[in-house]
């Protein structure tokens, strides 16, 4: 049973993230990306601390210089950079592009794992990386490459988000195994909120809509509770149970969910080229991350 719980948790994370693309698109129609990112994290931090004080024993609520430094560092990579680039990317690219490019996170995770000598590099993994990159080139129409491309900026931001999340997976794993994931995640939300609010300082003049319709309330609630609190906690918890590459591997479920959701809700019909790119990226991720046996 214990071995199945992390797998179930990882599948749930990807299901939640898969639908978060559409929810975030709704919110970004009225809020600047970094401003919303800061607001989202502040609300999540308050709720997470409230939960942590209820469920985490006092003996496990560690607060010292090393703990605060590390939670700040992991918040910088896993929240501030990851969420900031993700929201900026989602604003300037399509839901489908964003979902497919996010499948590069497992490959980046594996690269950093090898660089930091956490895992070994093999020919099979190298082949997986090549095929995944090929998929990105297919998606990006490499033969028509142009800096003026409508989604180019958003795609770059999305890949930077993948890079920062991969670093978070690698750097935070040992720390989370020694501390309460609930307590550590609450502090990461706190520092992440501060960093995002500083980054989005220029957006403070943005006028908050006087009236938020039910569609916006549902999207915001989903983004804060499901796509922030639940997913970050489950990722932190699963990192204490399985290795970083295995956590990242499950990200390849996201595009299937997001593309289908975009297809039915926003009429973003996936083209043959998009499907080919998905196949390449899925194949590359599988070869690059799945271990023999």
In brief, what are we looking at here?
The protein is mainly alpha-helical. The chain has helices spanning 4-28, 33-55, 65-92, 95-101, 105-115, 123-139, 152-178, 181-199, 214-239, 244-249, 254-266, 272-289.
What do you see in this structure?
This protein has 293 residues and is mostly helical. It has one domain. Helices cover 75% and strands 0% of the residues. It is built from 12 helices and no strands. Helix 5 packs across helix 7 (152-178) and helix 6 runs antiparallel to helix 12. The longest helix has 28 residues, at 65-92. It is globular and about 50 Å long. The mean pLDDT is 82.
State the order of secondary-structure elements, H for helix, E for strand: HHHHHHHHHHHH
User: Could you tell me the radius of gyration in angstroms?
Assistant: 19 Å
Describe the main β-sheet briefly: none
Number of separate strands = 0
> What gross morphology would you assign?
globular
Q: Indicate the low-confidence ranges by residue numbers.
A: none
Question: Span between N and C termini?
Answer: 21 Å
The count of helical stretches stands at 12
Structural class: mainly alpha
- For the record, the count of structural domains works out to 1
Beta-strand level of the residues, as a percent range?
A: under 5%
Mean pLDDT score: 82
Query: Helicity range of the residues?
Result: over 70%
Keywords:
single chain; 293 residues; mainly alpha
Task: Summarize the topology.
Blueprint: H1 4-28, H2 33-55, H3 65-92, H4 95-101, H5 105-115, H6 123-139, H7 152-178, H8 181-199, H9 214-239, H10 244-249, H11 254-266, H12 272-289
Helix pairs in contact: 1-9, 1-11, 2-8, 2-9, 3-7, 3-8, 4-11, 4-12, 5-7, 6-12
């Amino acid at each position: 049973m214990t071995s199945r719980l992390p797998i179930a948790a990882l599948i749930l994370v990807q299901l939640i993230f898969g639908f978060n693309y559409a929810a975030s698109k709704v919110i970004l129609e009225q809020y600047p990306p970094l401003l919303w990112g800061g607001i989202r994290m502040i609300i999540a931090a308050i709720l997470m601390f409230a939960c942590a004080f209820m469920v985490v024993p006092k003996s496990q609520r560690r607060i010292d210089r090393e703990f605060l430094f590390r939670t700040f560092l992991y918040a910088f990579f896993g929240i501030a950079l990851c969420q900031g680039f993700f929201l900026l990317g989602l604003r300037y690219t399509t839901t489908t592009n964003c979902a497919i490019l996010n499948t590069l996170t497992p490959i980046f995770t594996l690269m950093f794992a090898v660089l930091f000598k956490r895992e070994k590099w093999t020919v099979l993994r190298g082949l997986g990386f090549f095929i995944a990159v090929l998929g990105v080139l297919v998606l990006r129409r490499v033969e028509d490459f142009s800096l003026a491309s409508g989604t180019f900026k958003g795609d770059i931001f999305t890949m930077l988000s993948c890079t920062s999340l991969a670093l978070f997976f690698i750097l935070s794993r040992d720390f989370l195994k020694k501390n309460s994931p609930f307590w550590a995640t609450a502090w990461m939300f706190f520092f992440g909120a501060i960093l995002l609010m500083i980054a989005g300082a220029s957006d403070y003049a943005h006028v908050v809509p006087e009236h938020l319709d039910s569609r916006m309330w549902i999207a915001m609630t989903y983004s804060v509770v499901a796509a922030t609190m639940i997913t970050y906690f489950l990722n932190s918890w699963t990192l204490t149970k399985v290795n970083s590459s295995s956590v990242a591997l499950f990200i390849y479920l996201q595009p299937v969910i997001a593309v289908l959701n975009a297809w039915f809700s926003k009429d973003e019909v996936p083209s043959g080229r998009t499907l080919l790119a998905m196949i390449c990226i899925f194949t590359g991720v599988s070869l690059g991350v799945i271990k023999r046996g």
